[in-house]
């Protein structure tokens, strides 16, 4: 019995030694021993091999369906008006302004959106081109070969047996450090030393947390990093976005007050650093939000504000409508594009399906987080541009840089209903087409 | 995730749907995972609300009529079989299907069936006739508030006049077919499903 105890103690000591000296300390100073790099390299090779095996398996058993990342159907291109015009021209409607076959257009459009629409699938996990050997993504893939199954089994052992305990230890240390550190710094009187210490605490624990998720982050164009007094806007996939960005600099965060684990972290962070948290009810009062943010930006010495103008997590395939609020504040906008590599794990937080803790557990049992961050050149409001146009311009720039689909739809549709005004616009479009014909025919009569 | 669900679709079921609708094996599994992702109640059927949650459909002026096409009279749930049967009307007509002998029953995506499907969009009370009133209602859905009652009335009158051959001031299915004789229904009522 005693022997067992001392053995367990020895193992625990070993474990903590490895965690503290080989991972945590280097991480705190932003160093890397290169282990993660080698691990990722190996993973890439394994996944490439698996893809080949799956492709071969598919040729042998034709029953295995081929996943189509591009969707289920092929749609006609062009705007609504163009398509409608084309349709009408095709059956040469002389004289009459309405044809019974006009309904076909809406019918087809409707059916297409039932089979495959642009919006709802942005709120569920992205489909992979090939299985990444995680059980949870094994949607349309079936048993293919023994070797593949063995590799998958090995993966399970490594992910759950080695990586997961390691990551949990790191995350617990990181988060505890964050809560304790920021609380301690919060006691200090306002001074330059305080904000410096606060930055150190934030930076070190974010680095530890990033290790806890085996995050490999590639920052591009560091010269465009957000500056003090500016506003950093980025596309939003998961709360981890914050950890990813904060590994390379400090931000003042803006967001809603959460409950649970997130709430504890938020409350302690605000003590040392001027983050801006809003109650849900306050959030509705857009005017109050804007004025608080404006005050923050006006003090040029404060950390850049970090905002996710989509207002909700999107599944890493597209950028959805940017709410105009953050673009009305004024000041310089520093756009940032974040794109996760879906092969190593699905970073999207589907908040209607998983709570924060179970999401984090999923992340910690994935292969890794591999992510690219692009800092884009600062942008400002141009002459004659309103906030909405500016927001769209920034959104397009981010989508273009990150290789994401640029959508105009509101991410709020995840929970809310679509506004009637959009339907009215369609009706207006159609009306103008059938009335337009009439107008042109009467004007011809007049000539 | 559609993962476990797609394995719940039994092989025999896929075969039956294949026979009935003409969709391929992989199309069926893909559409099944779409079906399950729309099925927020997770009970294997879709309700009208499940459809209305698709924003692009919600803004479609004829959205409600289209959704209605999925529900047989008096029912408010549709299962995967029924879902596929409705979608099958929009499969393109393939060359090998055109020359099928007449003895086999007509496929769901034939020209006549596509037209019948479109006809029912206008035939609100399912009495196999499009009355002036029904046509007006559908027109109103399409144009919203942008066209006056008077103008819309004259559009409806003219449309019925053009189609009506037996003078009952409504459009029967046969009259409907005749009016749309020259329209490329095969193309306009087809969606290109990827294989």
Describe the 3D structure.
Chain A: One of its GO terms (biological process) is phospholipid biosynthetic process. Chain A: This is Phospholipid/glycerol acyltransferase domain-containing protein. Chain A: Its main location: endoplasmic reticulum. Chain A: The chain crosses the membrane at residues 144-162, 168-188. Chain A: Pathway: Lipid metabolism; Glycerolipid metabolism; triacylglycerol biosynthesis; Phospholipid metabolism; CDP-diacylglycerol biosynthesis; CDP-diacylglycerol from sn-glycerol 3-phosphate: step 1/3. The complex is a heterodimer of chains A (447) and B (195). Chain A has 447 residues and is of the alpha/beta class. Chain A has a domain at 144-414: Glycerol-3-phosphate (1)-acyltransferase (3-Layer(aba) Sandwich), CATH 3.40.1130. Chain A has helices at residues 2-28, 35-60, 80-90, 102-115, 146-187, 192-212, 240-246, 260-272, 280-284, 286-298, 325-328, 356-364, 387-402, 420-446, and strands at 73-74, 215-220, 231-234, 252-256, 276-278, 305-307, 318-319, 333-340, 369-375, 405-406. In chain A, the strands form 2 sheets. Chain A has a 7-stranded mixed sheet, with helices on both faces. In chain A, strands 7-10 form a two-stranded parallel ribbon. Chain B has 195 residues and is mainly α. In chain B, helix 1 (2-8) crosses helix 3 and helix 10 packs across helix 11 (149-163). The model of chain B is unreliable at 1-7 (pLDDT under 50). Classes of the chains: A alpha/beta (447), B mainly alpha (195). Strand 1 (73-74) of chain A pairs antiparallel with strand 5 of chain B, so a sheet runs across the interface.
